[in-house]
# Entry
Amino acid sequence: MPDTEPYGAAAPGVGADPADSGAAPMGGDVPPMTTPSVTRRFDAWNYREDSGVGDGSDLVGFRIEATDGHIGKIDEASALVGEQYLVVDTGPWIFGKKVLLPAGTVNRVDQLEQRIYVDRTKSQIKDAPQFEPDTYASPEYREKVGGYYGSTYERHR
# Structure
């Protein structure tokens, strides 16, 4: 009688269709599958993919909301990749000063209500390096501001 398995019989479970409910489960030292928790890395000068800022969005005039309340309106916004930020006119909140918010602090944008929600408190924003109107676009100033907000990110999470 001819051998129907020319190379011998298959090992149990090998070649079985895994979708087949009768297939034997894998054995041995296979660790259980787990999904790692997602850790978001703070990228100061780019909007988060899920923030809702669309390409070419004009955000000037939108209200800015910190985690604990309103802080002002956007006076200027940069959409250059790697250099995205918001200049916020705080009005009477901190005596008419402006602050620079890196795009990475933006949690979400409500285009309909024209509001931007950031993931920092009013106190964290108030304690940021002072806005420097003549040098705020310089790499040195952005490094100082980005470093400050990066340090508050870990404490905020």
